[in-house]
Amino acid sequence: MSKRRSGENVTDPGETHLKVEERETHAAGVKAVVIAAKHALPRAGVVRTMRSFLKLNQADGFDCMSCAWPDPDPEHRHTAEFCENGAKAVAEEADRRRADPAFFATHTIPALDQQSEWWLGQQGRITEPLVRRPGSDHYEPISWDAAFRLIADELKSLSSPDEAIFYTSGRASNEVAFAYQLFSRAFGTNNLPDCSNMCHESTSVALAESIGIGKASVSMRDVYDAELIVIAGQNPGTNHPRMLSALEIAKRRGAKIVAINPLREAGLINFRNPQEVKGIVGTGVDIADDYLQIKLGGDLALFQAVGSLLVEWDALDHDFIDTHTTGFADWAAHVAQVDHELVVEATGLSWEQITGFAERLRASKGTVWCWAMGITQHRNGVATIKEIVNLALAHGDIGKRGAGLFPVRGHSNVQGDRTMGIWERPPAKFLDALQQEFDFDPPREHGLDTVEAIRAMRDDKAHVFIGLGGNFLQAAPDTDITSQALRNCRLTVHISTKLNRSHLHTGTTALILPTLGRTEKDVRGGKEQFVTVEDSVCSVHASRGPLAPASTSLLSETAIICGIAEATLGDKYGIRWSAMANDYDVVREHISRVVAGCEDYTQRVDRPGGFVMPHPPRDSRTFETKSGLAEFAVSPIELLQVPKGCLLLQTMRSHDQFNTTIYGLDDRYRGIHNGRRVVFLHREDIAAAGFNNGDHVDLIGHWDGDEIERVAADFRIVEYDTPRGSAAAYYPETNPLVPLDSTAVGSNTPTSKAVVISLRPVQAVAPVAPGAGRPGADEGGQDEVGADEGHKRFPQPEHLS
């Protein structure tokens, strides 16, 4: 173990050094390699860096803990089968720095909460189980057995199992996900919210209702062979960088690409592959043939307009429509009435641009439809995805080579977790299989999703929160309300590798249970274990870490969950918790009999490249919907009314972060360096609000559902190429502006891409999100405004009066 205890000597530059420079017009290249090395080597060292990088995304190695982009077939993988952000993710986990008991004895919880999210992550790996006892402002060590007993005693004291919340992050393996949902249901509740509730839940709902399964209908070969690829509401250069290599292959084979995104993003403009000569010394490959800079919230109108043109031109696959679908006539009649002027107003695009997109689609014999959170996190997210499906059905783009639906998942195993039963609304057939395997009747009533769980904790209806990975406070909407909800609990438990904000807003009693990471060897029961994951195209494969654990006191996630379960339930139902903890083959035996498509699981998953889960629409053009056919949907276009003087804000990642993990303070593709508190605006919107480029403003949230004024304080205005009326800023700094009750219809996903805001000059004192409101607190300084002052009512801004 390194002698360095923590990153306490790390200096946070803060916003005073923020620089705005020229934006980049290409992604990756040699610079990405250099930056990845500069990030990894100081944290992990040369030996650990090389040992981990050479096994990253390899058939005999471990799966990247960042995005869920699929791996190429084993015989086609590069030696360096990872991207810049994957390298950063590995470096963060392989960090030689340690947040040990001495660190927590030195730092109080309130003092830690004054630090930035970036600073917290730089303190290194947590080495021992920790407890914060009632009334204390410190974490102190606790044994594993004592921690498990504490959790068990609190769970057993609840008046109802439904007073417990079992949250899951998307990086949890299939093995621990299966054990976790089994524990929750054996305990007696379906309260299994997960990160999917906040990102791709709109996808899961829309696809399940339209085609009978909430997953992608494509393989990687389909992406390579597509004639047209549509990328909507997605920034692959930052969020899924390895996708650019696949797009490069498709472009070389003649594919056209249409990008639909409010901001002009470097990764959608040009890609310079650092593993190709042309990417090093040449100009790379241009990505988007057409770049549609759509206004926030205008996607549904765009897709319906395209549908109206396909119907008008009779550019339809009638054989597919007649044989495999229902509802076409109603949809065709609906889109035939689309108002062109309304579409132009809603999208900010010209009718010529829309027609050009439709002509691309008409000419294509195979189209792959890609989307991400820019589509899902709107009030009409479910309807918009159904409209994408409508176009795919009208064109016969499901179940054929070089075509299909491709929701690109943002977390490494969020799809696998859902397959394993992490869902608050499990299907009856899954519960039936669980009952048959374990001889108990699991609860049948739906549980709480993420938004509902926050409400339950806020309203004192739930009293124990267990978080399997992730940074719940910073990932969730309405940060102040979520903070209060967590603090209302009697017990909060976080299973983590590093310190994060959620550890600092705790219940009366709090536990941090440190776990092994993907990069680390997992030896249990006298043998080296492996885990499994599922990527965005339903491929399931093994993952084995090569590094020695950060501490001899760490346990795997599977061992932790089984330990809690055994302490809580004992031998109830005869479930072999100890056997599952010590040999993951036992877990996989259960999976093979409970989860459809996972027969002979251990044997199939341990082959190079693993296996692909069944997908009826893709495999046989069969659809397990209510009608037994793929279903066209009719959705009205609702033009989002933004009050005069207000803008529509999308929250987003910088290039130096993955979800809530902040790797650094740069976003070089967008020209931002040494800071994060910026808001990107069109020059005319800046002038209309009475400000200049470079001014500092408070962002004021507006939501008709309550009288609370939400404020994110002190952001620097950055003039940017974005449609009029659309703004963008980074989360989690702007999550305090996302109202808990503003969610997508049908999925309850927070509308993080459609937040109504106004701008006002920076106030001397303003409400803050916990640890992240004012620049002093967010970037490492001290802040006199406490977290309890988060929600206050302020007078209406002058320019809105």
UniProtKB/TrEMBL annotation:
**Coiled coil located at which positions?**
none
For activity, the cofactor(s) needed are: [4Fe-4S] cluster; Mo-bis(molybdopterin guanine dinucleotide)
Q: Name one GO molecular function term.
A: molybdenum ion binding
Q: Name one GO cellular component term.
A: membrane
Asked if the keyword Membrane belongs to this entry, the reply reads no
Pfam families xrefs: Molybdopterin (PF00384)
Q: Which UniProt keywords apply?
A: 4Fe-4S, Iron, Iron-sulfur, Metal-binding, Molybdenum, Oxidoreductase
Q: Which domain of life does this protein belong to? A: Bacteria
Q: Which residues form the Molybdopterin oxidoreductase domain?
A: 125-520
**Region labeled Disordered — which residues?**
767-801
Please give the InterPro entries that the UniProt record associates with this protein.
Answer: Asp_de-COase-like_dom_sf, MopB_CT_YdeP, Mopterin_OxRdtase, Mopterin_OxRdtse_a_bac, Prok_molybdopt-oxidoreductase, YdeP_MopB
Task: Keyword check for Metal-binding, yes or no.
Answer: yes
**Biased-composition ranges for Basic and acidic residues?**
788-801
Q: Which family does it belong to?
A: Belongs to the prokaryotic molybdopterin-containing oxidoreductase family.
Database matches in NCBIfam families: Fdhalpha-like
Put simply, this protein is called FdhF/YdeP family oxidoreductase
Which source organism? Nakamurella sp. A5-74
